[in-house]
Amino acid sequence: MERFDYVIVGGGSGGATLASRLSEDPDVSVCLLEAGGKGDSLFVRVPVGTVAMISGRPKINNWALWTTPQDGLKGRRGFQPRGKALGGSSAINAMLYVRGHRADYDQWAQLGCEGWSWDEVLPFFRRAENNVWGADEFHGDSGPLQVSDQRDPRPITRAFIDAAAQRQFRITRDFNRGDNEGFGLYQVTQFHDPARRGERCSAAAAYLHPVMGRRPNLTVVTGAQASRIVFDGKRAVGVEYRLGGKTQVVAAAREVVLSGGAFGSPQLLQLSGVGRPEDIQPHGIKMVHELPGVGQNLQDHLDFILAWKTRDRDNFGIGAIAAANLVKHASAWRRDGGGMFATPFAEGAGFLKTRPGLDLPDAQMHFVIGIVDNHARKLHAGHGFCLHVCALYPHSRGRVFLESADPTAPPGIDPRFLSDRRDLDTLIRAAKIARDLVLTPPLSRYCDRELFGLHDGMTDAEWEDHIRSRADTIYHPIGTCRMGADDMAVVDSQLRVRGLEGLRVVDASVMPTLIGGNTNAPTIMIAEKAADLMKGARAAAT
Fold first, then answer.
1. How far apart are CA 140 and CA 125, in angstroms?
2. What is the rounded CA–CA span in Å between residue 424 and residue 435?
3. Which of 384, 390, 411 is nearest to 400 (CA)?
4. Which residues does residue 221 pair with via DSSP β-bridges, in sequence order?
5. pLDDT at residue 84 above 90?
6. Could you give the CA distance from residue 308 to residue 311 in angstroms, rounded to a whole number?
7. Among 5, 167, 321, 363, whose Cα sits 20 to 30 Å from the Cα of 438?
8. Which residues are catalytic?
9. Which bin fits 364, alpha (ψ -120 to 50), beta or left (φ > 0)?
10. CA-CA distance, 473 to 56, in Å (whole number)?
11. Per-residue pLDDT tens digits for 13-33
12. Where are the chain's structural domains?
C-alpha cells in the first residue's frame, strides 16, 4: 500500500489547485486521484472544442449526468454536463472568469463561515490570478491562472453591449471588483503568454500540468475511480479506488481531501457511510458517521434561452458557409491564438436587477454567438445567436443521494428546480428584459427570426410555459457539503468534515449559498485558501 501525507480525490478546479499548492513543499507528499484523463487534448486546449464536449455526444471529458424528473420542468430530466478529466469542469466550460458580488462572501461570514468574507477571500483570488491587465487592488499578475481579455469578440456581441447602453444599463469593463452590476465583455481563463496564446487555461493547465512529472513528491493517477474512504474509527486514513479493473488502496498519513464537486463529494461520503442513515443503509452500506447535511442544500442556476436566426455570418453556425468560415478561423488560431476558435461563445455579459429596490443584481445574462439548444444536443442549420438568462440567487433547494452502492453508478441528482415560485418570477422578469434588449437597435438589425415562438404581448402564463418547457442548468451546482457552524453544516470554516478526523472537502460543494455569477473562479479561490489552512494545520502540529 502506497502512503502519502495527503490523498486528494478529484482533479477538477479544487483538486488540481490544491494538489499543486500543497506539493510546493518538498517535504510533503501528495497523491491526486482523478477518474478521467489528463485533460490536455486538443478538444480542451482549443476553446471552440467545448461544443464537442458539452453535449456528451459522445462522452468526451464529460460525466454527462442527468437529474431525476423535475416537477417544476414538466417532468423533464435535466442534463448535467460535468468535466471528467484533470481540470474538471474548467476543461469543458466557457472559460468565464467571474467572482460574484462582495455581498455573497460577506453573507457566508454572516452564516458562520469565519474567515470567508469578501475582504478575507480577495487575497486568494489575487494570488491565483495572472491577469493580462496587471496587478492592482483587485487583481494579481503572478498567479498560475491566466486571465485574459477575449481575443476576438464578434461585432454582434458589441451590438449587444451597445443595445444595453441604449437601454440605460451600466457598461462595465471589470465584473470582479466586488460590484458586478452592468453589461460588457467577460474576461476568460485563457492563456495570454506568446507560447500558448489563445488556448484554454483550465485549472489543470494552470496549476497541475506544469509540475506533473517534475515534483517527485506529487503523484497523479488518472483513470482512478474512488470507491470509498477508508476509516480507522472516526479518522480517514486512506482511499479505496479502482484502476484498470483492480481495486487498490492508498493511505493518507495526514488527511484525505474530497474534491469531487457538488455531485461527486457527497456521493463518496455516502458510499463511505457518512451522511443520513436513510440515504445509506438501504444500500447495505454500514454507517460510519451520521451527518444530516450530506447531499442536502443543492443549489444551481437555472437557465432560460432566447434565440434568433440571423443573416449575419460572422458568428458560429452550421452549414457549408459556416464550415468554410471555420477553416479560416482555424488558421487564425494556429497563427496567433485569435479568430473564432478562441471564443468562449458566451462573449457578452450582463448582471442586472429585474425590479427596483434590489440591493444586488438578481439575474445574469450570457450573450452567445451561436444557437445553443439543449446543451448543443439539438443542432440548427444556419447562423444565429442566443441570450441566456438565469436567476442568480435561487430559493429552490435540492439534494444528491445514492441510487446504488456501486461507486461507478451515477448519483441521484434532484435540484427541485422552480420548487420555489420566487425563482420562476425572477426568470419571467429577466426573460422579458432580455427580449426587449434584443429587439433594441443596434442588436435588432441582426434579428431574422425568433427560434422558439416568443412573441409580443406574451402573458406571464405564456412565459411560464416556455420556461418550464425549456429551462435547464447553466452548470453551477453547489452546496451539498456546505460550510457552516449549525447542525446541517457538513464542514466547518476550516473545511474539515464535522465529527470526523483527517477529512476535508475542497470544492464547490462547500459553498453555503450560490454566488452571483459563475462558480469556477470561486472554486479555485476556495482551494487556494484551503491550501493555506492545511499548511497552517501542519505547521501547528509539528
1. 8
2. 16
3. 411
4. 33
5. yes
6. 10
7. 321
8. 476
9. beta
10. 15
11. 999 999 999 999 999 999 999
12. 151-185+302-391+419-470
Burial (CB < 10 A; 0-12, 13-18, 19+), residue 75, is exposed
Write the CB contacts of 213 (distance below 8 Å, at least 6 apart in sequence). Answer: none
**Does residue 286 carry a pLDDT above 90?**
yes
Report d(CA 218, CA 135) in Å as an integer: 30
Rg (CA), the chain: 22
| Nearest Cα residue to 265 out of 8, 537, 529, 526 | 8
In the structure, what pLDDT confidence band is assigned to residue 191 with cuts at 50, 70 and 90?
very high
List alpha helices for 180-338, DSSP H. 203, 261-271, 277-280, 320-336
Burial class for 233, CB neighbours closer than 10 Å (0-12, 13-18, 19+): exposed
CA distance 518 to 14: 15
Please tell me the distance from the alpha carbon of residue 139 to that of residue 152, in angstroms, as a whole number.
22
CA angle, 254 as apex, 248 and 257 as ends, to 5°?
65
Of the chain, the end-to-end C-alpha distance in Å amounts to 25
The confidence score (pLDDT) of residue 198 equals 97
Q: Which CATH architecture has domain 151-185+302-391+419-470?
A: 2-Layer Sandwich (3.30)
The span from the CA of 506 to the CA of 237, in Å, is: 17
The pLDDT assigned to 227 comes to: 98
Please, are residues 506 and 495 in contact by the beta-carbon 8 Å criterion? yes
What are the backbone dihedrals phi and psi of residue 359, each rounded to the nearest 5 degrees, phi first? Answer: -80, -30
The set of cell numbers assigned to 534 is 492545511
What distance in Å separates the CA atoms of residue 155 and residue 174, rounded to the nearest whole number? 20
Residue 269: per-residue pLDDT: 99
- The owner of cell 440605460 is 168
**CA distances to 65, 190, 241, 370 from 60, in Å:** 13, 20, 22, 21
pLDDT in tens, 92-129: 999 999 999 999 999 999 999 999 999 999 999 999 99
